[in-house]
Protein backbone atom coordinates (compact mmCIF):
# COMPACT_ATOMS: atom_id res chain seq x y z
CA UNK A 1 0.00 0.00 0.00
CA UNK A 2 1.29 3.53 -0.88
CA UNK A 3 0.62 6.88 0.79
CA UNK A 4 1.24 10.52 -0.21
CA UNK A 5 3.92 12.38 1.82
CA UNK A 6 5.26 15.93 1.62
CA UNK A 7 8.99 16.45 0.96
CA UNK A 8 11.01 19.36 2.50
CA UNK A 9 10.78 21.36 -0.73
CA UNK A 10 6.97 21.17 -0.66
CA UNK A 11 6.47 18.61 -3.40
CA UNK A 12 4.33 15.50 -2.93
CA UNK A 13 5.89 12.04 -3.14
CA UNK A 14 4.56 8.55 -2.87
CA UNK A 15 5.85 6.28 -0.11
CA UNK A 16 5.28 2.58 0.27
CA UNK A 17 4.00 1.30 3.57
CA UNK A 18 5.36 -2.09 4.56
CA UNK A 19 2.76 -4.78 5.13
CA UNK A 20 3.79 -5.16 8.75
CA UNK A 21 2.67 -1.58 9.55
CA UNK A 22 -0.87 -2.06 8.32
CA UNK A 23 -3.54 -1.87 10.95
CA UNK A 24 -4.51 -5.42 11.89
CA UNK A 25 -8.17 -6.12 12.56
CA UNK A 26 -9.04 -6.12 16.25
CA UNK A 27 -9.54 -9.55 17.71
CA UNK A 28 -12.20 -10.15 20.31
CA UNK A 29 -10.71 -11.10 23.66
CA UNK A 30 -11.10 -14.72 24.63
CA UNK A 31 -13.93 -15.32 27.00
CA UNK A 32 -13.34 -17.08 30.30
CA UNK A 33 -16.95 -18.11 30.78
CA UNK A 34 -16.18 -21.82 30.74
CA UNK A 35 -13.82 -21.55 33.69
CA UNK A 36 -16.29 -19.43 35.62
CA UNK A 37 -19.05 -21.98 35.02
CA UNK A 38 -17.05 -24.91 36.41
CA UNK A 39 -18.15 -24.46 40.08
CA UNK A 40 -21.81 -24.27 39.05
CA UNK A 41 -21.45 -27.32 36.83
CA UNK A 42 -19.79 -29.31 39.61
CA UNK A 43 -22.53 -28.27 42.04
CA UNK A 44 -25.19 -29.30 39.53
CA UNK A 45 -23.60 -32.69 38.87
CA UNK A 46 -23.12 -33.51 42.55
CA UNK A 47 -26.41 -32.29 43.99
CA UNK A 48 -28.76 -32.64 41.00
CA UNK A 49 -27.58 -35.39 38.66
CA UNK A 50 -26.18 -37.48 41.52
CA UNK A 51 -29.45 -37.78 43.50
CA UNK A 52 -31.36 -38.35 40.26
CA UNK A 53 -29.18 -41.33 39.40
CA UNK A 54 -29.43 -42.56 42.99
CA UNK A 55 -33.23 -42.74 42.66
CA UNK A 56 -32.95 -45.22 39.80
CA UNK A 57 -30.31 -47.26 41.65
CA UNK A 58 -32.26 -47.51 44.93
CA UNK A 59 -35.45 -48.37 43.01
CA UNK A 60 -33.76 -51.62 41.96
CA UNK A 61 -32.80 -52.58 45.54
CA UNK A 62 -34.57 -54.27 48.43
CA UNK A 63 -33.60 -51.92 51.26
CA UNK A 64 -35.73 -52.24 54.42
CA UNK A 65 -34.28 -49.27 56.30
CA UNK A 66 -31.14 -47.16 56.37
CA UNK A 67 -29.11 -49.52 58.58
CA UNK A 68 -30.49 -52.77 57.16
CA UNK A 69 -28.72 -55.07 54.67
CA UNK A 70 -29.31 -54.30 51.01
CA UNK A 71 -30.08 -56.83 48.30
CA UNK A 72 -30.80 -56.57 44.60
CA UNK A 73 -34.51 -56.65 43.77
CA UNK A 74 -34.49 -55.96 40.05
CA UNK A 75 -38.04 -55.33 38.87
CA UNK A 76 -39.53 -56.73 42.07
CA UNK A 77 -40.25 -53.25 43.44
CA UNK A 78 -42.03 -52.33 40.23
CA UNK A 79 -44.33 -55.34 40.52
CA UNK A 80 -44.96 -54.58 44.20
CA UNK A 81 -45.88 -50.98 43.47
CA UNK A 82 -48.00 -51.95 40.47
CA UNK A 83 -50.06 -54.40 42.56
CA UNK A 84 -50.53 -52.04 45.52
CA UNK A 85 -54.01 -50.40 45.72
CA UNK A 86 -52.53 -47.55 47.77
CA UNK A 87 -50.34 -46.55 44.83
CA UNK A 88 -53.31 -46.32 42.48
CA UNK A 89 -55.26 -44.30 45.06
CA UNK A 90 -52.30 -41.91 45.20
CA UNK A 91 -52.23 -41.70 41.40
CA UNK A 92 -55.94 -40.87 41.33
CA UNK A 93 -55.62 -38.23 44.06
CA UNK A 94 -52.62 -36.61 42.37
CA UNK A 95 -54.42 -36.52 39.03
CA UNK A 96 -57.46 -34.86 40.61
CA UNK A 97 -55.23 -32.39 42.43
CA UNK A 98 -53.43 -31.36 39.25
CA UNK A 99 -56.59 -31.29 37.12
CA UNK A 100 -58.36 -28.94 39.56
CA UNK A 101 -55.66 -26.83 41.20
CA UNK A 102 -53.51 -26.04 38.16
CA UNK A 103 -56.16 -24.63 35.76
CA UNK A 104 -57.97 -22.73 38.52
CA UNK A 105 -54.74 -21.23 39.82
CA UNK A 106 -53.38 -20.19 36.40
CA UNK A 107 -56.65 -18.72 35.09
CA UNK A 108 -57.51 -16.84 38.28
CA UNK A 109 -53.92 -15.64 38.71
CA UNK A 110 -53.78 -14.34 35.16
CA UNK A 111 -57.07 -12.46 35.54
CA UNK A 112 -55.99 -11.02 38.86
CA UNK A 113 -52.58 -10.09 37.46
CA UNK A 114 -54.25 -8.37 34.49
CA UNK A 115 -56.38 -6.34 36.89
CA UNK A 116 -53.33 -5.28 38.90
CA UNK A 117 -51.46 -4.40 35.68
CA UNK A 118 -54.21 -1.90 34.81
CA UNK A 119 -53.01 0.13 37.82
CA UNK A 120 -56.34 0.54 39.64
CA UNK A 121 -56.49 2.70 42.78
CA UNK A 122 -54.38 1.10 45.46
CA UNK A 123 -52.62 -1.28 43.07
CA UNK A 124 -49.29 -0.91 44.89
CA UNK A 125 -50.86 -1.99 48.17
CA UNK A 126 -52.66 -4.81 46.39
CA UNK A 127 -49.33 -6.17 45.12
CA UNK A 128 -48.04 -6.41 48.69
CA UNK A 129 -51.24 -8.03 49.93
CA UNK A 130 -51.03 -10.69 47.21
CA UNK A 131 -47.55 -11.60 48.43
CA UNK A 132 -48.75 -12.38 51.97
CA UNK A 133 -49.42 -16.12 51.42
CA UNK A 134 -45.93 -16.46 49.96
CA UNK A 135 -44.40 -14.86 53.06
CA UNK A 136 -46.09 -17.29 55.47
CA UNK A 137 -44.29 -20.55 56.22
CA UNK A 138 -45.93 -23.82 55.25
CA UNK A 139 -46.58 -24.94 58.86
CA UNK A 140 -48.20 -21.58 59.61
CA UNK A 141 -50.44 -21.85 56.55
CA UNK A 142 -51.38 -25.38 57.58
CA UNK A 143 -52.30 -24.15 61.06
CA UNK A 144 -54.50 -21.42 59.55
CA UNK A 145 -56.41 -24.00 57.50
CA UNK A 146 -56.59 -26.38 60.45
CA UNK A 147 -58.12 -23.64 62.60
CA UNK A 148 -60.63 -22.81 59.87
CA UNK A 149 -61.60 -26.39 58.95
CA UNK A 150 -61.60 -28.17 62.30
CA UNK A 151 -65.00 -29.34 63.63
CA UNK A 152 -65.28 -26.29 65.88
CA UNK A 153 -63.43 -23.99 63.50
CA UNK A 154 -64.33 -20.84 61.60
CA UNK A 155 -66.06 -22.51 58.63
CA UNK A 156 -68.48 -24.55 60.73
CA UNK A 157 -69.07 -21.59 63.00
CA UNK A 158 -69.94 -19.37 60.04
CA UNK A 159 -72.32 -22.00 58.63
CA UNK A 160 -74.10 -22.33 61.94
CA UNK A 161 -74.39 -18.55 62.35
CA UNK A 162 -76.27 -18.23 59.04
CA UNK A 163 -78.59 -21.15 59.71
CA UNK A 164 -76.74 -23.76 57.62
CA UNK A 165 -75.70 -26.00 60.48
CA UNK A 166 -76.70 -29.08 58.50
CA UNK A 167 -73.77 -28.44 56.14
CA UNK A 168 -71.12 -28.54 58.87
CA UNK A 169 -68.59 -31.33 58.61
CA UNK A 170 -65.23 -32.53 59.89
CA UNK A 171 -63.66 -31.26 56.70
CA UNK A 172 -60.15 -32.62 57.18
CA UNK A 173 -61.38 -35.94 58.60
CA UNK A 174 -63.99 -36.72 55.96
CA UNK A 175 -62.99 -38.91 52.98
CA UNK A 176 -65.14 -36.79 50.66
CA UNK A 177 -63.64 -33.41 51.60
CA UNK A 178 -60.05 -34.00 52.81
CA UNK A 179 -58.50 -33.85 49.34
CA UNK A 180 -60.63 -30.82 48.40
CA UNK A 181 -59.29 -28.98 51.46
CA UNK A 182 -55.72 -29.69 50.39
CA UNK A 183 -56.48 -28.43 46.88
CA UNK A 184 -57.99 -25.26 48.34
CA UNK A 185 -54.79 -24.72 50.34
CA UNK A 186 -52.66 -25.14 47.21
CA UNK A 187 -54.76 -22.59 45.31
CA UNK A 188 -54.83 -20.07 48.15
CA UNK A 189 -51.08 -20.25 48.77
CA UNK A 190 -50.11 -20.00 45.08
CA UNK A 191 -52.61 -17.70 43.42
CA UNK A 192 -51.36 -14.41 44.87
CA UNK A 193 -47.68 -14.91 44.13
CA UNK A 194 -48.47 -16.12 40.61
CA UNK A 195 -50.72 -13.10 40.02
CA UNK A 196 -47.85 -10.77 40.93
CA UNK A 197 -45.61 -12.56 38.42
CA UNK A 198 -48.22 -12.14 35.69
CA UNK A 199 -48.72 -8.46 36.60
CA UNK A 200 -44.97 -7.83 36.32
CA UNK A 201 -44.88 -9.44 32.87
CA UNK A 202 -48.02 -7.63 31.68
CA UNK A 203 -46.49 -4.29 32.67
CA UNK A 204 -43.88 -4.80 29.94
CA UNK A 205 -46.55 -5.11 27.24
CA UNK A 206 -46.83 -1.80 25.31
CA UNK A 207 -49.89 0.22 26.33
CA UNK A 208 -50.58 0.93 22.67
CA UNK A 209 -51.81 -2.64 22.15
CA UNK A 210 -54.56 -2.34 24.70
CA UNK A 211 -55.46 1.19 23.63
CA UNK A 212 -55.75 0.12 19.98
CA UNK A 213 -57.97 -2.82 20.93
CA UNK A 214 -60.27 -0.59 22.97
CA UNK A 215 -60.50 1.92 20.11
CA UNK A 216 -61.64 -0.96 17.92
CA UNK A 217 -64.43 -1.69 20.39
CA UNK A 218 -62.87 -4.55 22.38
CA UNK A 219 -63.76 -4.68 26.05
CA UNK A 220 -61.48 -5.63 28.90
CA UNK A 221 -62.38 -9.32 28.64
CA UNK A 222 -61.51 -9.57 24.95
CA UNK A 223 -58.43 -7.38 25.38
CA UNK A 224 -57.23 -9.57 28.22
CA UNK A 225 -57.57 -12.89 26.37
CA UNK A 226 -57.25 -11.91 22.69
CA UNK A 227 -54.53 -9.23 22.88
CA UNK A 228 -52.43 -9.55 26.03
CA UNK A 229 -52.56 -13.31 26.51
CA UNK A 230 -51.00 -14.18 23.09
CA UNK A 231 -48.18 -11.71 23.78
CA UNK A 232 -47.15 -13.38 27.06
CA UNK A 233 -48.16 -16.91 26.08
CA UNK A 234 -44.64 -18.27 26.49
CA UNK A 235 -44.37 -16.70 29.97
CA UNK A 236 -47.69 -18.26 30.96
CA UNK A 237 -46.21 -21.60 29.94
CA UNK A 238 -43.16 -21.08 32.16
CA UNK A 239 -45.30 -20.14 35.18
CA UNK A 240 -47.59 -23.10 34.52
CA UNK A 241 -44.61 -25.46 34.50
CA UNK A 242 -43.37 -24.04 37.81
CA UNK A 243 -46.78 -24.41 39.46
CA UNK A 244 -47.13 -27.91 38.00
CA UNK A 245 -43.85 -28.98 39.57
CA UNK A 246 -44.69 -27.33 42.88
CA UNK A 247 -48.09 -29.02 43.05
CA UNK A 248 -46.74 -32.40 41.95
CA UNK A 249 -43.69 -32.57 44.21
CA UNK A 250 -44.59 -30.16 47.03
CA UNK A 251 -47.96 -31.50 48.15
CA UNK A 252 -46.39 -33.92 50.65
CA UNK A 253 -45.83 -31.25 53.28
CA UNK A 254 -49.47 -30.13 53.35
CA UNK A 255 -50.67 -33.74 53.47
CA UNK A 256 -48.24 -34.51 56.30
CA UNK A 257 -49.28 -31.49 58.35
CA UNK A 258 -53.05 -31.71 57.89
CA UNK A 259 -54.34 -35.20 57.03
CA UNK A 260 -51.46 -37.72 57.17
CA UNK A 261 -52.84 -39.13 53.92
CA UNK A 262 -56.19 -40.06 55.44
CA UNK A 263 -58.84 -40.86 56.20
CA UNK A 264 -57.63 -44.13 54.73
CA UNK A 265 -55.93 -43.15 51.50
CA UNK A 266 -58.41 -40.46 50.47
CA UNK A 267 -55.79 -37.69 50.55
CA UNK A 268 -52.60 -39.67 49.86
CA UNK A 269 -50.67 -38.19 46.94
CA UNK A 270 -47.66 -39.59 45.11
CA UNK A 271 -45.20 -37.22 46.77
CA UNK A 272 -46.56 -38.09 50.22
CA UNK A 273 -46.40 -41.80 49.36
CA UNK A 274 -42.68 -41.40 48.66
CA UNK A 275 -42.21 -39.86 52.12
CA UNK A 276 -44.47 -42.37 53.87
CA UNK A 277 -42.77 -45.46 52.45
CA UNK A 278 -39.26 -44.09 53.03
CA UNK A 279 -39.53 -42.63 56.55
CA UNK A 280 -42.53 -44.39 58.10
CA UNK A 281 -42.67 -47.83 56.48
CA UNK A 282 -38.86 -47.95 55.99
CA UNK A 283 -39.17 -49.41 52.50
CA UNK A 284 -36.67 -47.39 50.50
CA UNK A 285 -36.90 -49.52 47.35
CA UNK A 286 -40.68 -49.05 47.14
CA UNK A 287 -40.32 -45.35 47.92
CA UNK A 288 -37.81 -44.66 45.18
CA UNK A 289 -39.75 -46.75 42.67
CA UNK A 290 -42.65 -44.36 43.23
CA UNK A 291 -40.09 -41.55 42.96
CA UNK A 292 -39.04 -42.79 39.52
CA UNK A 293 -42.69 -42.84 38.43
CA UNK A 294 -43.11 -39.35 39.85
CA UNK A 295 -40.07 -38.15 37.93
CA UNK A 296 -41.43 -39.56 34.67
CA UNK A 297 -44.83 -37.94 35.29
CA UNK A 298 -43.12 -34.60 35.89
CA UNK A 299 -41.03 -34.92 32.74
CA UNK A 300 -44.01 -35.82 30.56
CA UNK A 301 -46.07 -33.04 32.14
CA UNK A 302 -43.40 -30.43 31.44
CA UNK A 303 -43.12 -31.49 27.81
CA UNK A 304 -46.91 -31.40 27.41
CA UNK A 305 -47.21 -27.93 28.96
CA UNK A 306 -44.37 -26.63 26.81
CA UNK A 307 -46.10 -27.93 23.70
CA UNK A 308 -49.48 -26.43 24.66
CA UNK A 309 -48.11 -22.97 25.40
CA UNK A 310 -45.52 -22.70 22.66
CA UNK A 311 -45.84 -19.69 20.38
CA UNK A 312 -47.55 -20.34 17.05
CA UNK A 313 -46.31 -17.27 15.17
Automatic annotation (TrEMBL):
Membrane topology note: Multi-pass membrane protein
Keyword terms of this UniProt record: Cell membrane, Membrane, Transmembrane, Transmembrane helix, Transport
Domain ABC transmembrane type-1: 91-305
UniProt keyword Transmembrane present: yes
Disordered: annotated span: 1-30
Transmembrane segments: 35-63, 95-116, 128-149, 177-200, 231-249, 285-305
Gene3D superfamilies recorded: MetI-like
Pfam families: BPD_transp_1
Subcellular location: Cell membrane
Family: Belongs to the binding-protein-dependent transport system permease family.
Name of this chain's protein: Sugar ABC transporter permease
Originating species: Streptomyces spinosisporus
